[in-house]
Amino acid sequence: AQHIGRLIREGGRSFSFEFYPPKDEAGEEQLWAAIEALGPYRPTFVSVTYGAGGSTRDKTVRITARIARDTAMIPMAHLTCVGHTVAEIEAILDDYEAAGVRNIMALRGDPSDGPRAAWTPTDGGFSYASELVELVRGRGTFDIGVAAFPEGHPSSASLEADADVLVAKARAGAAFAVTQMFFRAEDYFDLVDRVRARGVDMPILPGIMPILNLGAIRRQGELIGTSVPQEIADRIQARADDPAAVRAEGIALAAELCETLLAGGAPGLHFYTLNRSKATLEIFDRLNLTV
Ligand code: FAD
């Protein structure tokens, strides 16, 4: 009942929320306030990221364990290969198992110099996410999610090669994928088509990030390979002298994207909440999907 892959396939539309491990006490309060505010919407699952370089190992374990123990929500714990030997990864999986976490987002992670820097595997560790998928799969305890990239991973040779990688992760045992943020629905649908053309029917959840700060999204997008289409930037910039209107337009654009995605057959929506509930709930209200 705890396995996300089956819930997405059998449960109709899936809605999920992503959080990150906060740095300090104030951030911790904000996180739990957001979790509390979003809980009544009964997401299919909530996920907690794994800090760059494995820096949040203990926090990610602690937060997902508390969600499993104290809330009605199903947590998914992200896990990366950065800086870990296989033995360390095994120990982290033991912790998750003991904490009642039954879903793992299996990722390679990024080099410390960022997503575009050359990747050097840790001695005794893994080179690719597909190897982590295989290890997690072998345990039999967890359902596994993997990352997908509608515009291609920034170091992929081509969109076709990128689809091959995603398909390899599915064949290694991933039950579903969640995408990087993107702003053109066609990029998502084209990715789904490339995966289906390879004979793989794994559900792919679109990752939704509202543009509340165009400059910040552009900078982040440059790093991770997500572009902000000119027509979208234009709609936001047309309101540049009215912060409330800029925010409202960012929410409206995200809601439009969500509607197009669901109408086109996306199995659900995965919201990047940045540990806040407000923007996500504003999008929800516009979609008229509230329970
Ligand atoms: P992989 O699938 O291993 O791909 C990495 C690169 O290697 C790609 O360019 C791919 O094309 C190439 N590749 C893969 N397999 C092969 C092969 N067999 N031969 C040749 N090339 C290959 N990062 C974090 O640190 N913590 C998080 O919690 C986190 N959560 C994320 C959640 C989502 C939904 C997404 C989309 C990303 C997340 N990331 C996170 C970022 C992620 O770690 C980076 O995007 C990373 O650069 C790629 O991870 P991956 O799992 O896709 O790696």
UniProtKB/TrEMBL annotation:
Organism, as annotated: Nocardioides terrae
Keyword NAD: yes
Record-listed E.C. numbers: 1.5.1.54
The protein's required cofactors: FAD
Pathway info: Amino-acid biosynthesis; L-methionine biosynthesis via de novo pathway; One-carbon metabolism; tetrahydrofolate interconversion
GO cellular component, one term: cytosol
Record family assignment: Belongs to the methylenetetrahydrofolate reductase family.
Top-level EC class as recorded in UniProt: oxidoreductase
A single MF term (Gene Ontology): FAD binding
Reactions this protein catalyses: (6S)-5-methyl-5,6,7,8-tetrahydrofolate + NAD(+) = (6R)-5,10-methylene-5,6,7,8-tetrahydrofolate + NADH + H(+)
Protein name (database record): Methylenetetrahydrofolate reductase
Gene3D superfamilies listed in its UniProt record: 3.20.20.220
Keyword list, A-Z: Amino-acid biosynthesis, FAD, Flavoprotein, Methionine biosynthesis, NAD, Oxidoreductase
GO BP term (any one): methionine biosynthetic process
